[in-house]
Specification:
Blueprint (H helix, E strand, L loop, with lengths): L1 H31 L3 H5 L13 H6 L8 H35 L4 H12 L6 H10 L6 H26 L2 H9 L4 H12 L1 H17 L2 H6 L8 H8 L7 H11 L1 H24 L1
Length: 279
Amino acid sequence: MKQKIRLVLRYLAALILAISILAPLLWMFLMSVSSAEDLTRIPLEWLPRHWDFSRYASLLTLQAGQPGALFLHALGNSLLVACGATIVSLLLAIPAAYSFSRYPGRDGWLFGSLAIYMVPPVAFVLPLYFILQQLALLNTHLGLILVYCSMILPFLTWMLKNQFDALPVDIEQASRLDGLRYWQVLLRITLPLAKPALGASAMFGWLLAWDEFFYALLFTNNIDAQTLPVTIAGFTAGRATDDGLIAAVGILAAIPPLFIALWLQKTLVSGLTAGGSKG
C-alpha cells in the first residue's frame, strides 16, 4: 500500500512539474496566434476567436521590412556563437579537467578559476572591452566566442573534473601497462566512460552561451554579430509593442534548445550504457 501511495505521489509531483513548465509555453503560443483585439479584450478569453499565424510567417521570411530579417540573422548569430564557444570550451576543458583529476596538488588553480567565474560580469566589462578593441574583435562572432569561453570554461572544467574523479583509475593503469600513451588513454578509455558528463557539460555550456545577454549587448552594436537575446529586447523597445510578435519570437527561440536537449538526451543514455558495459 505504501509503495502505491509513493508511486501516486511521484507521478503527481511529475505532473505538477510538467504543468508548471508547459503552461507558460502554452500561454505564450496562444498569445502568438491571437489578434491584437483578442489580446486587449476585457475580460480576457483563454482561446483566440481568430487564429492568426501571420507573425510566424513574417518571422521566417527574409523579405526587407519584415521582422524576420532581424530575427533569422540574430538566430544564425546565436547558433554560431553558442556552438563555437561550447566546442572551444570543451576542447580546452577536457585536458584541463583530466589534469586536475589525475595529478593532485593543482586544485588551487581550479578553485581560483571558479572564484573568478563567480565574480559579477560587470567587473570584467572594461578589461574585456579594451582587449577586444585592441584586437579589432568588437561586434564580431569571434570576439563573442572568446568572451563566452572565459565564462563557460571554468564551469565545464569543474563539471568534468568531478566526473573524472568518479571513474576507476585501474582501467587507465591497465591501459598504460598495455602500451597506451596518456593521450591515447584519455581518448580511448576515459572519454568513452565519461560520455554522459560530456553530453551534460556540452548542454549546460551551450545554454549559458545561448541565453547570455549582458556581454552580447555591450560588445555588439549592430545586427552583424548581435545575438538573439539582444534582438528580442529590441522588439520591445518601440512605442507600439506587438505582444503577440514577441511571444512568437519566444516560441521560435525555444526550438533550438529543445532540439539540443533531445539530441544530447540520446547521448546521455548511450553514454550511460557504454560506461556501464566497460566498467
